Each structure stands twice: as structure tokens, then as C-alpha cells.
Amino acid sequence: MNLQTYLRAGHPGLAVISSEEVRAEAEIASACAALGRSLHAWSSTEGLVDTGEGRVTPCPDPLEALQQLDGLFAADSSSEPQHVVLLRDLQLHLDQSDPMLVRRIKDTLRVAKAHGHAIILLGCRLKLPAELEHEFTHIDFNLPGPEQLGVVLDGIAKSANLKDLPDELREAALQSALGLTTTEAENAFALSVVETSGIDPVVIAREKARTLKRNGLVEVVEASTSLEDIGGLDQLKAWLDRRAGAFSTEARSYGLPAPKGLLIVGIPGTGKSLTAKATAGAFGLPLLRLDMGRVFGGIVGQSEANLRSVIQTAEAIAPCVLWIDEIEKGFSGSQSSGSTDGGTSSRVFGSFLSWMQEKTKAVFVVATANDVSKLPPEFLRKGRFDEMFFVDLPDSRERAAIWDIVIAKYGRKPTDFDTVVLARACEQFTGAEIEAVFIDALHEAFAEGAEPSERKHIVTGIGNTVPLANLMDGQIAALRHWAKGRAREAGASATNPSSAPRRRRIDPRAN
Predict the structure, then answer these.
(1) pLDDT recorded at residue 218
(2) Contacts of 115 (CB under 8 A, 6+ apart)
(3) 4-8, 395-399, 417-421, 473-477: which range is least confident on average?
(4) Are residues 367 and 479 in the same domain?
(5) What is the phi/psi pair of residue 121, to 5°?
């Protein structure tokens, strides 16, 4: 937070948006001490407090407090230090649309600027009236990094009488806590001590996953899927394999920039979401899942604040993989949002594009889309993503590989089934439909008290299934036409001699 720079530049109105009130106030106090400024703080419960001398002026009403500031600012002599006044939770009063409060704030800012003082708004959200939007400068307050979290961890370890933590354990614990506030991290560290009598990164990571899921915007997903769990998509998997080391220290020393992301478009059920999960496993990075629908809130300014929170969380955890499933549903209305939602979707979309283009943190975005026609053109241009892949229906060789993986996933041996024959029998099926057929066969066999039979249960299930490709053949043809020349094929090339059906043996324990 470059607060000192803004104070030295003479900005009279600043706004710090953070739910970490204690840490934010500590940094504000540190900046004031470094610049020789006196710090005053106001809240509706405490009134106006001179933090240096401890004087308290009771004034629960913000209008009353601003009147006190006018006197404080105007009466100050040149020999006394300049003042910084911290106003807590003023947003709650601004929500009431009090014109006298707005006018008083503008008048107080004018006096503050004339005498070199500053007012800082602090709260977990901020949506200023139009009359004040250009009066305050927003200052980003990032989530704590390893250094700040290390102070919290050392305090917990000391209070629990733990001996010096090994460097590897300490680093793993801090990495597991990235993305949490200092309070949330302190709670996770303390829980680890209670449960394990020590610091356990697994417990901390579990609590982080629960915390982020409770917040509702992003959630930590366990990346237990590998590229070996995907049947086919050889070109896409090879592309990911070649970039697996791009987040390492050696890559930075080589001068290689961190990969930005990947857009996967294609037919529903062909493994796009599975690939997103496998990407995190291939890179050895934590996986965050973002539901774009949750970003958009009903309160004015909430959607933009939610997106900033998501970006802060992802960048705090970086390096990581951010997975956005069916992204076209979140941004499909951005071009017409001016007449439907006051431009909220358009602003959120623009902010997201700017971040994608300019981000320097190692956040690899994997976005999937079923209907690419709903995505705005500027979203698809080079620079937003490193590459765009099109996932078509699996061919015969890929379907055979999918059968192997599905059979092994449910504890059976692929060698007990002729997966090449099964692959030919389920032409036009997606991977999801193949798995659904096998699950149905398991149900039928279980009801009969037997093991699934290839001819009796599986082939019958195939015959009873109408593949999605038959229902949406027109949409699939349009999607293939669009992808030609615009996106790379995710599967093996049709001219590749290795595309012929072949048997593949998979250890069931791999899943």
C-alpha cells in the first residue's frame, strides 16, 4: 500500500477498502509516524480520538465529527504537524443518501487540502455518491504476504511453546495460508496447534479451503486429477506438459514470463472441466474455482468489489490456477449491459480483461466455454490467453482410451473388456456419456447380483442412449466451422498414424 506517497503528494481524500481493519490501521499509523503526521480516528461508538495523546471527543454523528475536523484543520498553525483523520464505517452513513453529509464532506476536504491534511475512509466496501467519486483516491490494500503471515505464525508458535519450526515446515505452512487475512490465518494456525499439537500445512490448507468457500466467490478445489486421467486430447496435453516448468525459479532466471492462461472451447461433456482440474495437477499448483455468477451482486458497486476481492485472493495465493467454468454465461451480456443492468456487466468485464492483459502475478487462468458465439470478440484476441483449443467429439482411438480410464476408475480391469469394440459401438458419444453408460451398467449388474457384462449390460446401455451429438448436430457443425482456423485442435491430428484404435492398460490405483 503506497499510502506514504499519496500523503506526501497532498491528496486530501483517500479510501482504503479492506476487511482487515486492525492491519490496515496499523499500516496507516506506521505511515503517519514515518511522515511525522498526527493521527486521529473516528467511529460512531468511540467518537474522535487523538491516537497520540489519547484525547477523546464524543461525537457519534458523522456530521458532528466533520464539524470538529473543520475546526481542527483550520485552527492548526504551521508549527504543528499535519493531521491525518481515519473515518471508520462511513459507508453505512453514506448509504442513507444524506445530502448534508455529502456537502459537509466536500467542504471538509477543501479545508484539508488548503492546510495539507488528509482524510482516510476505511471499510470493507465503498460506493461513493456521484458528488464524491472524484474527491477520494482508492488505495489497494492487498492480502497479507508471507512476511506478514510469518509474524502471525511466529506469535502462535511462541504462545503454544513450540520450538523453532524447521524452515521447510514454516514455508509450507505460510504457503498454505496465502489468500487468508491475518485473522483467518491466525485462526487456522491455532486450530492446527489444537488438532495436531503442532503446525500442520494440511490442516491449514483445509481451513483455507473452507474459508474461501464460505466467502462464496472462489473455492479451493483439490487437484487430484492428472493428465493421465484424460482420454485423448493429445495435443492439448502435450502443450500443458511443455509449460509445466514455466512457473519455476529457473524459468524466471531464463527470462521466461509466467504463462497467462488457456481458453478451452468445445462440445459439452468432452473433458473441458476435467482438463482444467488436470492442469493444476500437471503444474503442481493449487486450483481455485471461480463461479462468475457469484461475482455479480445486487448492491450498487458490489460486483466490482467482488471482482477485486477475487483478483486479490488469486494473486495472494499465486502461483496458482484459476478455473472459470462456462465463462460465456458470466460475460455473455456485457455488450448490452448498459440498457439492462446499468453497465455493471460491462464494467466487470472490462476490469477482468484489463487484469488478464496486465497481470504480473503467476495466476494461470483456465476458462472453458460451450458456446463461444456468446463471448465478446475482444475476449478472444491474443494476449488475453496464451492459447485457445477446440475440443471435438472423441475419435475411435480416444473413445477406447476413455473406456479404459472409466473402467479402471470404478475398480474393474480394462483388460476384461474389449474396449476397441466398445469404442466402435458408441460412435458420436462424449466422454461424459461413456461414463454414464458404464455407471448405468454397474447399476443393472448390481441389481442382478453380478459383474457388469460387456454384451448384456454395456452394449444395451449404449443402445438405450441418444448421444448429445444427435440432438445438437447443427450447433456442433457451427462450432466446428467457427473453430477452423481460429483455435487449435485439442485431439490428435486425423493424419497422425497413432490415431488408430489401440489397447491401453491402466492401473486402477492411478485414480
Answers:
(1) 86
(2) 73, 74, 76, 82
(3) 473-477
(4) no
(5) -90, 135
| Grid coordinates given for 454 | 460387456
pLDDT at 210 over 80: yes
Q: Are 316 and 411 contained in the same domain?
A: no
Question: Which CATH number is 240's domain given?
Answer: 3.40.50.300
Q: What is 148-203 written as a DSSP string?
A: HHHHHHHHHHHHTTPPPPPHHHHHHHHHHHTTS-HHHHHHHHHHHHHHHSS--HHH
Whether the predicted pLDDT of 508 surpasses 60? no
Q: What does each C-alpha distance from 505 to 204, 228, 399, 404 come to in angstroms?
A: 37, 12, 14, 7
- Could you give phi then psi for residue 349, rounded to 5 degrees? -60, -45
* Residue 505, pLDDT above cutoff 50: no
Contact 124, 302 (CB under 8 A): no
Q: Is the pLDDT of residue 183 over 70?
A: yes
Once rounded to an integer, what is the mean pLDDT over residues 491-498?
A: 50
CATH number (domain holding residue 434):
1.10.8.60
The answer to whether residues 127 and 12 belong to one domain is: yes
Question: Does residue 511 surpass a pLDDT of 80?
Answer: no
Q: Are residues 332 and 440 in the same domain?
A: no
What is d(CA 221, CA 133) in angstroms, rounded to the nearest whole number? 38
Interacting residues of 351 by C-beta distance below 8 A, sequence separation 6+: 304, 307, 308
* 244 and 350 share one domain: yes
Residues 188 and 70 in one domain: no
What pLDDT digit, counting tens, does each position of 261-275 carry? 999 998 888 989 899
Residue 501 above 50 pLDDT? no
Q: How many domains does the chain have?
A: 4
Residue 60 has pLDDT above 90, yes or no: yes
101-113: string of b/e by CB count within 10 Å (b at 16+)?
bbebbeebbebbb
Q: Is residue 170 part of a domain?
A: yes
Q: Which three three-digit cell numbers place residue 42?
A: 473516528
Any residues with CB less than 8 A from the CB of 131 and at least 6 apart, and which? Answer: 102, 106
Query: pTM (2 decimals)?
Result: 0.74
Q: Is 379 found in the same domain as 234?
A: yes
Eight-class DSSP state of 31: H
Are the C-beta atoms of residues 43 and 86 closer than 8 Å to each other? no
Domain of residue 298 covers 227-391
Q: Which of 338, 363, 391 is the C-terminal boundary of a domain?
A: 391
Q: Residue 383 burial (CB < 10 Å; 0-12/13-18/19+)? A: exposed
The mean pLDDT value for 257-263 works out to: 90
Q: Is-contact 192 153, C-beta < 8 A? A: no
DSSP lists the bridge partners of residue 368 as 264
Is residue 120 domain-shared with residue 41, that is, in the same domain? yes
Q: Are 180 and 188 in contact (CB under 8 A)?
A: yes
> For residue 19, what pLDDT is reported?
84
- Residue 124 DSSP code: S
Instruction: Choose one of 172, 195, 215: the last residue of a domain.
Output: 215
